[in-house]
Specification:
By secondary structure, the protein is α+β, with helices and mostly antiparallel strands. It folds into four domains: 6-92, no CATH class; 137-347, no CATH class; 356-531 and 762-892, no CATH class; 542-726, no CATH class. 49% of the residues lie in helices and 16% in strands. It starts with 5 loop residues before the first helix and ends with a helix.
């Protein structure tokens, strides 16, 4: 029998060579049988023939043995791995259980960092990465007619006839589905609820790739004029309003007074991909004859077709079919001159996302927070590993391989990450619910974010990935050096490299937290400055009560209705004044598309602008406490004389360096019947009224006179009573007044004017709160990290502190020494963080609304606040250091 070569034994370091083992075994049996037959007197050649005849097909037996050997080896390896993994997990659980405080801090750090990141990434995925859930989502676009007004794109309604032309002649699209948005009252007058809805045709559900959860789709007859009324409910509304009951099918509900039958429920994934409108609660069939225009058309491009090419073809077909009339404009009934053209645009939901910049900033902020959390966990693992070096050295000395120790440490990190990830799922889920609960009404896009199964996948990937990376880094750091050196006396005090690494991690935490904090303080400063903006009128105690005009009444009857409202409101106790206006001061104030001209300067441009316009009573300016800068107030005869009051900015633009009093101007845009507005005479100038705090410039405004003899504004759908209450009068009085006026009419809307204007800052305020929360979490984690590194340093320097105190060092000097270590790390981190903030604030420059990116107040306050937190974090370790008994400390060593 030949001896196994030495090199073959080294190959078994990784796994056995089964084929070689089988060949060796077969060779051994063959040689033994040959020797046996030769002992019986056969020659070697005869003996080998006899052995071959007795053994049969040796090659087949060899293949079968190799396969069986490989299978047994795999089972053995799997069994060894699972046994080792179970042992590692049990040991990890016991190890983590022996340090409950450390484990709790680590779990909380992972849960907060990963949970917050999961929530923000879920929002970013819904609104930026995968905003459309239709089949072939990358080819889905919304086609709309757009007009440029004041540098912004304003959509116009689109005729349904265009969809027929596109379906019949366009080659760049594979489908086109129109939609019309609406709000309606569902239910009777006593139990009605306002719902958001959309009108669609019968092919829309298959286009979107969804099927009703219960019930059916619209039938073709239901899209015909005079057909049976039908309605589909969205899943969310069905569960909120009807508790998810299946017996809603066939139920007849009034929608804006018209009975409609519930025929089905569609999943919540069915949405119109426009983040500027609320998700639909109900869906109605689109009847072309009664709904000739739509808000837009969802098109699916043909494969490999660019959006610009498709838009050009669709626009050409639109113009060729003579469908170029813009239709009703959203800002009024006027239309532009024929030379003012509109263009067809294809867009995606994220293109119109108002909070895009804020969301990108929050993604960057939460990424910094995740880095802080990961750095903190790495620091905690390093500190724990350093304290366990003696234990690991003993295990290594008793025979444990270094890779076995590495696997054990990595397993502990993964167990920690899994538990932390489970908590992170809860934190992320709660964070999304909080975002939905506290989101401002204007931030409609957040309503599209749901707490679906995706949150589990994101949290798991982040937690396991972070835990594996951090655990491997810490394990290699702890077990990479000569573990035997840890058994020598005083070895624990010689790990200068480890202390430097942990100190560097803490510096990184403080730096990242400083960047977050400065960004949050800059936004806070911007919000405070905006709230100090002078409005141009006195908003204290001012309330706007907006009434819907009674339907089916003549303008004179509506005028009488408004005058009765005013008389009743004036008689209320605690009311200081009442006036009437066409619309209240608020961010979404009524604007008119206009091209203003004067006799001296006729209009020559083709680009319109949005001019604020309002019909007001003669006492409007006195009640609003707006001074008349020049001229006189309006009176009851002003409507017949076409007299108006203009804002200061409009007067300066039309008549620079000249008095506007007695001057005339008009809107040069043409009415649908071809007529033009009459010339209007300026009789007064008032300050600019700020109604939207985020507008960079003041909107020009025109105030027309409203009187009992002027019925024109009463043809509108609503009118507003502006009521000024004494400071001690409750707003419940207004609610009681509103409910008592003309029972059966829609409920009036009561709004505090100051709060309504402040709502224009809803988005930056929301962003500020979220960023401030992230900054606070970052500061907390940095404080924990700083506390940990200083505490560990004090524990490792106990003998040194004892020797110093024995040689005469006072407790004050020891406190100064320990505190100096912490403050030194904090100052380095703060300096690096301020430098990082200087670079990072470029991303939020557009959100600062006039506040400089290098605002010294924010930078100084951030540095001071972090320094105070660092001193507080070092307080307990400092107290422990000064409480050391020098005799015990030296004796312990």
């Amino acid at each position: 029998m030949t001896k196994t070569p030495a090199w073959r034994r080294y190959l078994r370091f990784w796994r056995p060579n089964i084929a070689a083992d089988v060949d060796e075994e077969l060779r051994f049996h063959t040689q033994m049988r040959v020797a046996e037959y030769m002992a019986r007197g056969l020659s070697e050649e005869e003996a080998r023939r006899a052995v071959a005849a007795r053994l049969g097909d040796v090659d087949a037996a060899r293949v079968d043995c190799i396969e069986q050997g490989k299978l047994r080896a795999i089972h053995a390896r799997n069994a060894d791995f699972l046994d080792g993994l179970r042992a590692d997990i049990r040991y990890a659980l016991r190890s983590l259980g022996r340090a409950p405080a450390w484990t709790a801090v680590a779990l909380l750090t992972i849960a907060l960092g990963v949970g917050a990141t999961t929530a923000v990434f879920r929002v970013a995925d819904t609104l930026l990465i995968n905003p459309i859930r239709y089949p072939h989502a990358s080819r889905i676009f919304i086609a709309r007619r757009m007009m440029t007004i004041d540098g912004s794109q304003v959509p116009a309604l689109l005729p349904v006839a265009a969809i027929r032309e596109w379906r019949g002649h366009a080659h760049t699209i594979n489908g086109a589905e129109p939609f019309r948005l609406f709000d309606a009252d569902l239910g009777d007058s006593t139990t009605s609820v306002t719902v958001h809805g959309s009108m669609i045709d019968t092919a829309f559900l298959s286009f979107a790739g969804v099927h009703p959860i219960i019930g059916r789709n619209f039938a073709a007859v239901e899209t015909m004029p005079g057909g049976p009324g039908a309605v589909l409910l969205s899943e969310g509304f069905w569960r909120r309003q009807y508790g998810g009951a299946s017996n809603v099918l066939g139920k007849v509900v009034p929608i804006d007074g018209q009975p409609r039958t519930i025929v089905g429920v569609v999943p919540s994934s069915l949405t119109i991909p426009m983040f500027r409108v609320e998700p639909a609660d109900i869906w109605l069939p689109l009847v072309e004859r009664t709904t000739p225009v739509v808000n837009g058309v969802i098109v699916r491009l043909a494969p490999s077709v660019a959006p610009d090419v498709a838009a050009a073809e669709l626009d050409t077909i639109f113009q060729r079919a003579h469908l170029g009339s813009p239709g009703p404009m959203p800002m009024g009934p006027r239309r532009a001159p024929g030379s003012m053209q509109m263009r067809l645009a294809l867009s995606r939901p994220q293109d119109d996302l108002k909070i895009r910049e804020s969301l990108l900033m929050l993604v960057g902020a939460v990424a910094l927070l995740l880095l802080v959390a990961c750095t903190n966990v790495a620091h905690l693992l390093l500190a724990r590993g350093a304290s366990r070096r003696h234990e690991l050295a003993v295990r290594h000395a008793l025979g444990a391989a270094r890779r076995r120790l590495l696997r054990q440490l990595v397993t502990e990190s993964l167990v920690l990450a899994l538990f932390g990830g489970a908590l992170a799922v809860v934190v992320g889920w709660v964070a999304l619910l909080v975002l939905e609960a506290v989101r401002p009404a204007d931030m409609v896009a957040l309503a599209y974010v749901t707490t679906g199964r995706g949150i589990l996948a994101v949290a798991s990937i982040l937690a396991i990935g972070s835990g594996l990376a951090i655990g491997l880094f810490a394990a290699l750091r702890v077990a990479s050096r000569q573990l035997g050196g840890a058994l020598r006396a005083g070895a624990m005090n010689t790990q200068l490299g480890g202390r430097r690494l942990r100190a560097a991690l803490v510096v990184g935490e403080v730096a990242l937290s400083a960047t977050l904090l400065v960004g949050a303080l800059l936004l806070v400063h911007a919000i405070v400055d905006l709230q100090r903006t002078r409005l141009g009128f006195d908003a204290r105690g001012l309330y706007a009560v907006t009434f819907a005009m009674p339907r089916g009444r003549a303008p004179a009857e509506r005028s009488a209705f408004v005058q009765r409202l005013r008389a009743v409101a004036t008689a209320l106790p605690g009311v200081e004044g009442v006036t009437i206006a066409g619309s209240p001061p608020q961010p979404r104030y009524w604007r008119m598309l206009s091209i203003l001209e004067t006799p001296e300067h006729p209009a020559s441009g083709e680009t319109g602008e949005a001019t604020a316009t309002n019909f007001v009573a003669p006492d409007f300016f006195a009640m609003m406490r707006m001074p008349i800068i020049a001229g006189r107030p309006l009176d009851d005869g002003s409507p017949t004389r076409n007299e108006v009051i203009v804002s200061r900015s409009l007067a300066r633009r039309l008549w620079p360096n000249e008095s506007p009093l007695g001057r005339r101007f008009r809107n040069a845009l043409v009415h649908p019947d071809g007529s033009r507005d009459p010339w209007q005479t300026v009789v007064g100038v008032v300050p600019d009224m700020v109604q939207d705090l985020l507008e960079s410039s003041t909107r020009p405004a025109i105030y027309d006179a409203l009187s009992a003899n002027n019925a024109n504004p009463f043809t509108a759908n609503s009118v507003t009573l502006l009521v000024r209450l004494k400071a001690d009068r409750p707003t419940a009085l207004l609610r009681q007044f509103a409910a008592s006026v003309e029972p059966g009419t829609p409920k009036p809307v009561i709004a505090n004017v100051r709060e309504s204007i402040d709502q224009s800052m809803a988005e930056p305020k929301f962003t500020m709160r979220v960023l401030t929360t992230f900054a606070a979490l970052g500061i907390l984690l940095a404080a924990i990290g700083l506390f940990g590194v200083i505490s560990y340093s004090v524990g490792q320097r106990t003998r040194e502190i004892g020797v110093r105190m024995t040689l005469g060092a006072t407790r004050t000097s020891i406190a100064r020494l320990v505190l100096g270590d912490g403050v030194r790390l904090a100052v380095i981190g703060i300096v690096l963080g301020l430098v990082g903030a200087t670079v990072a604030t470029r991303l939020i420059g557009s959100l600062l609304y006039g506040v400089s990116r290098f605002d010294p107040i924010s930078f100084t306050l951030g540095a001071v606040l972090l320094l105070v937190v660092a001193i507080v974090a070092c307080a307990v370790p400092t107290w422990r250091a000064t409480a050391v008994d020098p005799v015990i400390a030296v004796r312990a060593e």
